[in-house]
Design goal:
homopentamer; elongated; 52% strand; OB fold (Dihydrolipoamide Acetyltransferase, E2P)
Chain lengths: 96, 96, 96, 96, 96
Amino acid sequence: MNLGKVVGTVVATRKESSLDGLKFMLVKHVDPEGKETGGQVVAVDAVGAGPGELVLIATGSSARQTLATKDRPCDAVIMAIVDSWEIGGTEKYRKD
Amino acid sequence: MNLGKVVGTVVATRKESSLDGLKFMLVKHVDPEGKETGGQVVAVDAVGAGPGELVLIATGSSARQTLATKDRPCDAVIMAIVDSWEIGGTEKYRKD
Amino acid sequence: MNLGKVVGTVVATRKESSLDGLKFMLVKHVDPEGKETGGQVVAVDAVGAGPGELVLIATGSSARQTLATKDRPCDAVIMAIVDSWEIGGTEKYRKD
Amino acid sequence: MNLGKVVGTVVATRKESSLDGLKFMLVKHVDPEGKETGGQVVAVDAVGAGPGELVLIATGSSARQTLATKDRPCDAVIMAIVDSWEIGGTEKYRKD
Amino acid sequence: MNLGKVVGTVVATRKESSLDGLKFMLVKHVDPEGKETGGQVVAVDAVGAGPGELVLIATGSSARQTLATKDRPCDAVIMAIVDSWEIGGTEKYRKD
């Protein structure tokens, strides 16, 4: 999985019908220090993530292993909202 | 998924027969500001996208989860046409 | 899919037996202007492509969705030979 | 697979329910000399790896081929803890 | 597939049990001129490859389409040993 930060939303009315009702979030990748890496992805939200939240993104066929995305043409999903992470015992991020 | 802009079409008469009737679009990746990133992909069109439109592209096995692409040797599909997106409440793109 | 140019062939006698009879082609990636990007891949030929031809390459599990590659340890396949492509109405490539 | 070094842990309470009980590890990629490459991944731990250990990471659908990760939205798994590796007969790493 | 050169071996005693008996090889990617590109991968050996040999590597789910790797958490496999390759009729590599 990749660490990412939800920064926005994408609206698409005309789409494969199996995608109706899904929410597309614009997510920027962050590194273990919490800094944006320059990469980004549009991911379906499976957990109710909101703007500014740090999340985990699963990609590829694994992005279809949620109730929301099963058998749909979706290659990236937000499957967890990050509470915190630490490196070598030092907390690098904690959600407010 | 990746944001992309449809810029052209690819014609290929001689191909795996399961691909007959599919439309191959040349799509350039764009970043959240709408600028081209330098990357591109040839994607099957599953939603009737046209030149100049901003779209979402699903890749890998997820590209085969549309009616048009199921069980076909296709690793990239246009599965949505983008109406708009916003970052931090600021609209970055809206389709004319 | 990626645009590529067939530049050579790879011979491998000792291989997983399910691959017997398949032809491995050396393919260099090209960009929408037809210029080589520096990337390359070894792909199984499913359509009778020859040296110098521009082709489409499907990768990942999609590379196994041809008659030639089904259930085989193959992650890249030539599934179409390109006749032409255009960008913004301008023809960028046409096969002789 | 990629060589990686476990450097930390990620906590995520709100997640797809099938992920309950899994442990998310922050892993930095290392090259054959054991140096960090700058890349990283968040991987589910399937083998009881701990901080500082060198591990192998499998990604994509292969990350779901462990007892811990089967059918779950997980695209990276620690499936082995590295004891040692050698290049050209020279040992490059041995676990203490 | 990617061209690679087998440069070493990785030993991992503690691993997902389905991987018992498999051999992990350290493989450096090479370009069509046979030069190392700087990339590398740890791949399961399905064909009896040895140090110094040039090989083909399949990745992703395709890496599980060999007798050795089926249903295992393996995302890269050596599925062929390269005898030779040519570009434009010029032999670039031949195994001794």
